[in-house]
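Revision sheet: structure tokens.
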Amino acid sequence: MKKSTALILSFAMIFSIFTVCGYAETEKPFYLVLGDSIAYGSGLSNPREACYGKIVADTNGYEYVNHSIPGHTTTNLINRLNDETVISDLKKADIISISIGGNDFLMSNLIGLMFDSIVKNDHSEFDRIADGFYTNFTKIIDIINSHNEDAVILMQTLYNPQSGYLRAPYQQGADRINAAIEKYNEENPGEIVIVDVASALGDDMENYADDEIHPSTKGNETIARVILEKLNELGLGSGAAPVIIEKGKDIEISAVFTSTLRFAGFIFNAISVIYNLFSC
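Predicted:
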């Protein structure tokens, strides 16, 4: 059904080129964005005007709504999908972008996770959280399909915005989330389309805001580009070059915030050296 919808949307967009009036407002493909602070655009001081979802919508001429909320986990998103306004938009959506999963780790016992990973080389808690993500992600797609089984669902991979001693434990979390997404895709072919945001952003720190968590202006434009490329592959886009109507403005975060995180990583690494020395 999702492939059929993509084909129908493709013909609709092609047909619009040959019509005098083009799409009427109600005939534009409806683009819905769901998820967390990444999808909200929390790395920007003007997220509503310049987040990647807005760029994608402006580039392809979509009708657009963003229901993302900073701090949301997969559990929060499940609850969010019970909101009547969200349900109404779910039913209308032709394309749905989802960014979720990072907060399943960040809103857990982050210090404990870092300690276990860096000092003890113990990743069992990462595995437990990833298992919970998979269960919740399955519920999320089931709920979406219960309201609209024809929408094309774009699921983004989770990137790693850290450097130094914190990069390795963050990667442990990102790898597990992305493996769970791949597992779902293999077990449920055709239900989602994976957009590899993680590879697109990579380890280029210019793609990340001063908080070293969220995408910067450049990062949002990069995510928009990789989504647009995927939509073009599906025959649902009009171009891969992002149309920037309003330039993003990066947030400004005190250096104390990132320095504290880096210092915690340094301390954990020092403890790990001592821990391993005495455990031999």
